[in-house]
Amino acid sequence: KEIDFSILIREVCESHQPDVIQKQQIFDLQMPKHIVYANADVGQLSQAVTNIVGNAIKYTPNEGEITVRLEQGDEHIRFEVQDTGYGIPKEAQEKMFTEFYRAKSEATSHISGTGLGLSLVKSVIEAHGGEIDFISEEGVGSTFFFTLPATKAGS
User: Fold this and answer.
1) 117-127 vs 42-58: helix axis angle to the nearest 10?
2) By the 8 A CB rule, do 54 and 48 touch?
3) Which of 47, 67, 130, 144 could form a disulfide with 82 if both were Cys (CB 3.0 to 4.6 A apart)?
4) Is the pLDDT of residue 114 over 50?
């Protein structure tokens, strides 16, 4: 159904504030002033956004920075989460959306997880007609982003 994607983003980000505060991270939410519509399963899309934002918080050390952006173009909505976290080793990047795969490094060995999150996120985004990708540099951080087809109110 048609949803206000910007509200979903705000709600997910608010739900993560206790973790951000605990890790003393800088969290910057950059949203358009207007409503951003998307045709979506709200539960699935909320879970996908939760996973991406949660990973950024989890894989960014204390006092790091996380920026969440939502932009709307004529054809697509773009959502991205940029962090100053541990980054992903080059040799692990091609497997990031594979089920049960977790990129491990000395810096991230203490972080738990199943390796299912990003494969599920990819499935959800593709089921919504979108695409997902990322750029990352070990020791610098990562930016995960996806696009969804843009809709206009009432369409």
Assistant:
1) 140
2) no
3) 67
4) no
HSE toward the beta carbon, residue 73, CA cutoff 13 A: 9
CB contact set of 58 (below 8 Å; sequence gap of 6+)? 19, 111, 113
- Rounded Cα distance, 130 and 150, in Å: 10
- CA separation for the pair 65, 115 (Å, rounded): 23
Q: Are strands 65-72 and 26-30 parallel, antiparallel or unpaired?
A: parallel
Query: What sign has the CA pseudo-torsion 42, 44, 49, 51?
Result: positive
Report which DSSP code applies to 131.
E
From CA 42, how far away is CA 46, in angstroms rounded? 6
Instruction: Tokens 């890790």: give the residue.
Output: 23
pLDDT at 117: 72
